[in-house]
Amino acid sequence: RSSWLLLAPLLTPPVPVITAPPCSLCPEGAHKFQWIRNLVPEFGISSSHVKVLSSPAEFYELLKVQIKAAKRRVVMASLYLGTGLLEQELVYCLEETLEKSLQAKDSPDLRVSILLDYTRGSRGRKNSRTMLIPLLQRFPEQVRVSLFHTPNLRGLLRLLIPERFNETIGLQHIKVYLFDDNVILSGANLSDLYFTNRQDRYVLLRDSPEIADFFTELVDAIGDVSLQLQQDDTVQMKEGMVHPYQGDKVAYCEIANRRVMEVINSARTRQELLHEKTFHSSQPGSSLSSQQGSQASENLKPEPDTWIYPLIQMKPFGIQIDEMVTETLLTEAERDARIYLTTGYFNLTQAYMDLILGTRAEYRILLASPEVNGFFGAKGVAGAIPAAYVYIEHQFFSEVCYLQQQERVQLQEYSRAGWTFHAKGLWLYLAGSDLPCLTLIGSPNFGYRSVHRDLEAQVAIVTENKALQQQLHQEQEQLYLCSGVVSTSTFEQPNRYVKLWVKLVTPLIKNFF
User: Fold this and answer.
1) Which end of the chain is more exposed for a tag (fewer CB within 10 A), N or C?
2) What are the residue numbers of the active site?
3) What is the pLDDT of residues 64-78, one digit of tens each?
4) Euclidean distance between CA atoms 98 and 72, whole angstroms
């Protein structure tokens, strides 16, 4: 039985699914996760094109190097762009690269497209918009800045909810940074904390034109249904586009669904045709191999040993692909398989918790201790958020103990002096294996917001290559090294005291953070 059939009951009408080619097309020894390509495009690449980064500083330096080297396109999707000196340096790099492009003998080819969230990017007098307006003014034909505004923040709600609190309703949360044919997937935003002492995850996919094209088209699609930043700091929709909070909500969401699904399905069709062509051309006696012989084989790319699957989650638009794939991975994980799952904000959906507690695999869940939570020390109500996460963690731990699952499901808290923790994703180790063959990396936190409110994207990376598996294993080990195992005594520490009002309020607001 193919695993993807388990997804059938979850498929909603707004998410059309095209039947995949029969499994007879799969090459010998094909990996066991090819069912994912029934939902999204499958990109086969060489593992030598994948590099796992480990530190914020490395991530920041790579961003600058890639911007300076870009010739055709820079596409950056993030929650927001910060306003400090490090972020200003990124803007200078963009300006310098655009200036070089203008001075080139031929017509300027470089295009810069930036997608941010409207509410987060507009926070404060100095904000993401004011950082980017000089680029729009100087390079109006080459630069596009799109600000996504959730359709769920509208009417009286939009008028009444103050700045910062309005960000709880829904956000553009995707983090993708691409330069020509090089793509960085991460959970990190474009802000100085993420360049210095906020731990996240980052992977570089080098010389991957098909993957770069896909994410360019995805960002363009979201950009088309977003507000466009103008040179005078006003915003307006593209001509003929339904407005996200002034226009009809159903019509807007239908258009957005159609635009995003067009990107996913057209890329999927392209990759299926490429897969078929590659498979048939490599068969003995095929017309290609018999007619062109060794010359054809020289032109063919090396056999892929790594596969990339983009997983998109946009519940406001009726797109739930990431949720479906994640739930199926958790459901299908076999006995003695190990899943290392990490999130900076431990607030799992009920469905994910039920699967973790009710399935057979071993789980090692890494989460932030209160001191490394991104909200630790925040002013006002936000300062109580780490305590709310402690309360949620304690409730889950109590359930694990009640079900006597402590050996199989283990919680670990990341703790590192002077740092905050923002890493998210998972690593899957098959039964009997010391190395992971699959990882999920990107923006989702596995919480209610990621599943229901925000726009999210991550990739599943599946690899048969031992060197890349080792890279992923080292990444996991490095993160978990800075952690301690959670036990009953953890919640008896003074810093784990949760005030009564936080306990009472948390169940009411946990769906907003």
Assistant:
1) N
2) 173, 175, 180
3) 999 999 999 999 999
4) 10
